[in-house]
Amino acid sequence: MDSQAVENEKILKNVADDIKNGKYKNICVMVGAGISTAAGIPDFRSPKTGIYHNLQKFNLPYAEAIFDLEYFRENPKPFFELAYELMPGRYMPTPTHYFLRLMNEKGLMLRCFTQNIDTLERIAGVPEDKIVEAHGSFQYNRCIECKEMADSGYVRHCIETKDVPLCEKCKGYVKPTIVFYGEGLPSRFFDCMYEDMEKCDLALVIGTSLLVHPFADLPEIATENCQRLLINREVVGDFSERESDLMVLGDCDALVRQLCKYLDWEKDLDELVKAN
Ligand code: APR
């Protein structure tokens, strides 16, 4: 077993023991696109496979333009072509998503902060009141001009037929309430952020580059009493700046399964994965 695997095993065993002996009761998870890659949804920045490395066909001025409000106002087509590829209903939750559900069902989850717009946390069975979709999702749709809400069925139909949905009221462009660059995050994010991070005793960061703020502020504002654990392919954000930081590097589904084994949750996890 290589040294990283030995280190991962030691860390995950210790965290599992601390969870089993009741040391952690208010666990906040903070997740990104890395937990949905196994579902078939590419993340954004992984070399070669990341969405931002595969947008050549759209001739964008720069990759993030696909989520830029001003660019969308000029040319909404690239976003809707990407939306067609990312739209919920085509993908199933991963073992990591079911681990999040188990965390809640065992009474340990304070909040699940996600940057993902795929709603796979909801589909996996994490209850809505525990989820903060910091970058919005496909769940709701609104006109970018008059802010009138639009029917989701109509928007889904437009995405599937490669049309651009228009507002019934003002004929402006309609888009899912996914947070674009240039837009503010939902107020729910800020309402939960400060309150939850005061109480959080284990901050579990999984599958994110922690490059986009204010989401990436979450682990940074964790109190000194909060244990931070990173499960990711590489070290990100300000992890390793705190002496107490724990980092297990590798594939999130494999590492989460290992954690479930030490928690004696493996049977529960398998039942959820198999049942769906
Ligand atoms: N297991 C563990 N880590 C993984 C896996 C995996 N199977 N797959 C990818 N990762 C890691 C990558 O190494 C990277 O560190 O997950 C991280 C994904 O980072 P990004 O692609 O930047 O995705 P994310 O952090 O969610 O992006 C944040 O950027 O453009 C915005 O709004 C967009 O919400 C998105 C935000």
From TrEMBL:
Zn(2+) binds at C143, C146, C167, C170. This is NAD-dependent protein deacetylase. It comes from the Eukaryota. The gene is hst2. GO terms for cellular component: chromosome, subtelomeric region; cytoplasm; mating-type region heterochromatin; nucleus; pericentric heterochromatin; rDNA heterochromatin. Transmembrane segments: none annotated. The active site is at H135 (proton acceptor). Binds 1 zinc ion per subunit. GO terms for molecular function: histone deacetylase activity, NAD-dependent; NAD+ binding; zinc ion binding. NAD(+) binds at residues 33-37, 43-45, 115-118, 208-209, 232-234, 252. Its cofactor is Zn(2+). Keywords: Metal-binding, NAD, Transferase, Zinc. GO terms for biological process: pericentric heterochromatin formation; rDNA heterochromatin formation. The chain holds residues 1 to 276 of 377 of the full protein. Residues 5-266 form the Deacetylase sirtuin-type domain. It comes from Schizosaccharomyces japonicus (strain yFS275 / FY16936) (Fission yeast).
